[in-house]
Amino acid sequence: MQEILKRQSEKYLARYPKIFFCHVPKCAGVSLSKAIFSAVYPAFFKATRFAGYIDLKASQVSEQLLGIDMMRARESQLISHLESAHMVYTNGHCVARPDVVGKYYKNWHFVTVLRDPVDRFISEYVYNRYKSSQWQKHENDISVYLNSDAGLSSGMTYARYFSGVTDVRNVYDKKNDVVEAAVRNLQRFSVCGTLDDMGKWEQDFNAKFDARIAIGNRNATPNKQVYNDIADDPLLMQRIRSLCEVDQRIYDAVKTASMGSHAA
Fold first, then answer.
1. pLDDT in tens, 194-225
2. Per-residue pLDDT reduced to its tens digit, 22-46
3. pTM (2 d.p.)
4. Secondary structure string (H, E, C) spanning the chain
């Protein structure tokens, strides 16, 4: 009887695609994660081992107890999800390095969306400074933030998430290789587009998964005036563009590829 139930369960789960939504910070990820789940899976999956997420608390505790980098702990969680025989959906802020994508992309659909790097940088700065929760909250003025490790890391978010080079100090030494590796990696994603053309992203998603996705809006910037003040300052914008140089090249390549497929 147990073996029969197991086969029935496996047959039922086989109806659904396995999706990992790589949630890049401040790229509409909260809205997308909820929309993806609602469009593809039955609601009751949320209460089962069929669906999961990269847990923040667990990665924090892993860092404290084991002395490992928190993102490495999150990557370990991701791999355990991708290895699961039962899980069909997972998501979260987690690096999707080429080696991991290369191993699993034939059985799992990797999905993400990218935002203009400069817009994303400013949004992340403002959100983390003025949000109510304490996780990654800071009190730094933008001029201080631009010269901080956090600012440097934020400017290289796409490079860190997709190239396999996670140490920002190494990105500058091999810019061309980093861009090439990230773009090649993102080409293996089942759905990858840009926030400024979400219509195209939705079309690609719906075609891939035979779905009708509906995307809401969550986690808006908590201080629009500060965002606008930064965007209106030419000197600040010049500095931010410099920090985002590598990410901009990755983003432009993805956008060009998306536009090309749109035209086709």
1. 999 999 999 999 999 999 998 876 556 667 89
2. 999 999 888 899 999 999 999 999 9
3. 0.92
4. CHHHHHHHHHHHHCCCCCEEEECCCCCCHHHHHHHHHHHHCCHHHHHCCCECCCCHHHHHHHHHHHCCCHHHHHHHHHHHHHHCCCCCEEEECCCCCHHHHHHHCCCCEEEEEECCHHHHHHHHHHHHHHCCCCCCCCCCCHHHHCCCHHHHHHHCHHHHHHCCCCCHHHHHHHHHHHHHHHHHHHCCCCEEEEHHHHHHHHHHHHHHHCCCCCCCCCCCCCCHHHHHHHHCCHHHHHHHHHHCHHHHHHHHHHHHHHHHHHHC
pLDDT, tens digit, 9 for 90 and up, residues 120-173: 999 999 999 887 676 677 888 999 999 999 999 999 999 999 999 999 989 988
Please name each of the domains of the chain with its CATH number: 18-263 (3.40.50.300)
